[in-house]
Design brief:
Helix content: 40-55%
Structural class: alpha+beta
Number of helices: 3
Number of domains: 1
Number of strands: 4
Shape: elongated
Largest sheet: 2 strands, parallel
Length: 100
């Protein structure tokens, strides 16, 4: 029960601001992380986008360091696909259409 969270999905601008009451001993949250995807109650994926961009920025810095060490471009491409592209396409079918 301590790990259980309640996330209520609603329209971005509901006409009524009625939020159901949380069940006893279950915390109600506005944002939750499920299998690496950050969900919010209004199905806005800004938090997820920010998180993915932050991770990819760190990984791009790593690739820059590897490039400065003389790693061949072909190997850098493999590393780029493994570290960057994989992060963008993970669960893309779930959140990609709603991100724009």
């Amino acid at each position: 029960m301590s790990k259980t969270k309640e996330l209520v999905f609603h329209r971005p601008h509901p006409s009524r601001s009625h939020m159901p009451l949380a069940v006893d001993n279950i915390e109600q949250v506005k944002i939750a992380r499920l299998l690496g995807v950050i969900l919010s109650g209004n199905l806005n994926f800004d938090e997820h986008d920010t998180f993915v961009l932050s991770i990819c920025s760190q990984r791009l810095y790593l690739i820059k360091l590897l490039r400065s060490q003389g790693i061949p471009e072909s190997k850098l491409h493999v590393i780029f696909v493994a570290l960057i592209i994989s992060k963008f396409v993970y669960a893309l079918s779930a959140w990609g259409g709603l991100a724009f």
